[in-house]
Automatic annotation (TrEMBL):
Pfam families: Pyr_redox_2. PANTHER family: [F-ACTIN]-MONOOXYGENASE MICAL (PTHR23167:SF54), CALPONIN HOMOLOGY DOMAIN-CONTAINING PROTEIN DDB_G0272472-RELATED (PTHR23167). This is FAD/NAD(P)-binding domain-containing protein. It comes from the Eukaryota. It comes from Capitella teleta.
Amino acid sequence: MTITELSTPDDIFKTFVQADTWREVTQTFQSLCDSLHVLADSKNLFSHLKEHLKCSDAVTVFKALDKRAQQREYEKGEICAGKKTLIIGAGPCGLRMAIECALLGSEVSVVEMRDYITRNNVLHLWPFVIHDLKALGTKVFYKRFCTGGLDHISQYSYLSIN
């Protein structure tokens, strides 16, 4: 039996959030798409996920992304409409660029060479980056983000918000 056969979409999403390896992230995401009968590269993926996932973490992330998408620079989502963007590297910069391109209307593909991730790859963040990540719902996936003097994030956590 697969994870799709044993769990609700909300349960699969929670497993996705807690994944520890690239393989788990991609397999769990594919299971989530399978459970909702939607293709992972569907143009309506975001709206389909938003419609069917009701767990609090998913709702929080969707609200943050919707709020970002309503900003003036993304209003029409047409700047990159009809364009395909290939992001090479699923590190923090690549994943943040993927979010940006998607908000601007591009069809985005991200490729990554590694098949594992580590929570020990910690990146120091500038204050404006911290603000940006908070606005995208990072605390949903990395609860300790910006608690106390913690002004860094693991690369794994960044992967989760994308």
